[in-house]
Amino acid sequence: MKVLAFVLSVLLATALVAAGTALIVIQSPSHSLGLDLVAIFALTVFIYGPLLLGSVTSYWDVRGSAGSRASFQRYLWVVLGIEALAAIAVVVYSVVAGTPIWFPIVFIVGGAVLTVVGLTIGRALHRHEQAHPRADEPWRPVSRHEVRLKVLSIAVTFVAVFIGGLVVFGLVFSDESDCASSLGDQLTSAFQFATIGAALTAILVSVPLNRRLRSTVGGDFGTIRTVGKVVLGNKKVELDHAGQIAAAKYATIIPTILGLQLSYLTLLYLGLGTQQVRMILTGRNEAFNIGFTILLIAILVAFIPYVVVRIRRARTYAREHAELLPSDDISWPARTP
């Protein structure tokens, strides 16, 4: 149920991004690169901030301990603070761009409603899981065979959706007189759907690993945050023996999860970027499309090195603390996608 809810939420978020983008393009009398980046920032925050809150509250126990409550409160305030900045940004954008008065209201109220809905649904899903408990997958290191299967699943999805897209869009664009333009539309449309399908597959194949990761700390949000600071952030935090074992186990799993998350974001943004480049080449709404493309590239440029560094830190931590793991678990390290 939780997996289905997450997939639906990702699809809904993607649809809302498309709708919000259309609203910005249609309702803004003027476009410039700087202004469009401001609007895109606000749109992204108002949609993905609530999605993050819903994911955290559905998957982790944020009330089970004092540490969990404190960690989640800080997490919540950070997200709300960024949403407040997004509200200011959309108001500034509306004033400068000369949008209708209802434009910023729709964005701000929509973001607030999504935040409440995300928290409500997330907590409801967590309560449902507590009422119908399902054992987390027991911990074990991620084997190379597992990684290969997950990468293969992503690749097969991409190829299958791309071929299917070529067939479907070949029929859709078959009536166009310009053969070169028709072929270009077929290829780019099929590629977009293939990248998005592969991105969703990257999230789905990471679900068992997330359950395995959660088992290392018993689902406690405060503990996983502390362990993450130690393993990924190189923070000097005192851990008891049980905490050290949990951190060592965490370090054997998190690199693969981070690799899959990086694959998801890269594939998703590649699909979105392809659409923007296609529109730029046709001369439609160039300022907005250029701004959106620059934002996608900037996020990837910042995110990829950030994730790679954290993967390396986790691998180093796992090697340095391998003696804390059960002696029969010798399959570490495994390559991440």
Can I get a quick summary?
The chain is 80% helix and 0% strand. It is mainly α and 337 residues long. The chain has 2 domains: 1-132, no CATH class; 205-337, no CATH class.
Question: Strand percentage, roughly?
Answer: under 5%
N-to-C CA distance: 27 Å
Shape: globular
Reported for the largest beta sheet, the result is: none
Helices and strands, in order, run as: HHHHHHHHHH
Radius of gyration, in Å, reads 22 Å
Tally of helical segments: 10
The low-confidence parts are 328-337
Mean pLDDT: 85
Helicity level: over 70%
Q: Give the tally of β-strands.
A: 0
Number of domains: 2
Descriptive report:
The radius of gyration is 22 Å and the shape is globular. It starts with a helix and ends in a 17-residue tail after the last helix. Mean pLDDT is 85; it is low at 328-337. It has ten helices and no strands. Helix 2 packs antiparallel against helix 3, helix 5 (144-172) runs antiparallel to helix 6 (179-204) and helix 6 (179-204) packs antiparallel against helix 9 (241-281). The protein folds into two domains: 1-132, no CATH class; 205-337, no CATH class. The protein is mainly α and 337 residues long. Keywords: Membrane, Transmembrane, Transmembrane helix.
